Amino acid sequence: MDKDEKIIDIEDLKKENASKDNTGDEKENQEIKEDENKIEENEKEEDFEEKYNDLNDTYLRLAADFDNFRKRSLKEREETIIYSISNFAGELLPILDNFKRALETKEEVKDKGFYEGIEMIYKQLNEVLEKEGIERFTDEGEPFDPKRHCAVTVEKIEDKDNDIILEVFQDGYIYKQKILRPAMVKVNKK
Q1: Residue 175 host element (H or E)
Q2: What is the C-alpha to C-alpha distance for residues 114 and 109, in angstroms, rounded to an integer?
Q3: Cα 153 from Cα 104, distance rounded (Å)
Q4: Rounded to whole angstroms, how far apart are CA atoms 65 and 144?
Q5: What 3-state class would DSSP assign to 146?
Q6: CA angle 68, 48, 40 (to 5 degrees)
Q7: Is the dihedral angle over the CA atoms 8, 11, 13, 15 positive or is it negative?
Q8: Hey, is 109 helix, strand or coil?
Q9: Which strands, in side-by-side order, build the sheet including 149-155?
Q10: Which CATH number fits domain 137-190: 2.30.22.10, 1.50.10.10, 1.10.10.10, 2.70.70.10?
Q11: Mean pLDDT of each 10-residue bin along the chain, 190 residues long
């Protein structure tokens, strides 16, 4: 082997070693890149999960807010309807009372057709009120309830129970558990 061949062989060896080193470095670099890619993917997954959780939380809060808004709107609408019907009934009840008083004068009315007309109007008004959920309450013999009745007079009758309604002067009306007008009554007090 001459000197030139040795130089070539040494250079070849250097190249081989360098390529082996480069291959080792490449493998390390590739492993590092793979690790970096895995770290980036994990970070992306964590960011994605965090964004998903934030969006899901926002969605759930909006859904709850909307549900609360819907319930509140329905309740306000119902209260408005009750208030409107209560006001209307409050204006209509005195008219109904007057028809009832007119019916109590049956013996004084000479025109039977007129009396029957008043009676039909009174029945129709009561039917309309009942259809809308407005109910009459209080009958003689019921126990007195200060939340539903207004005692106009008191009488003492020994053979009747205490705090029993003896006579109803004006009917009471209720709509959806709201008293539109308390009944005016005579109560037994011992």
Answers
A1: strand 172-175
A2: 8
A3: 21
A4: 45
A5: coil
A6: 165
A7: negative
A8: coil
A9: 149-155, 183-188, 165-170
A10: 2.30.22.10
A11: 53 57 64 75 81 93 96 95 89 92 81 88 93 88 91 89 91 91 91
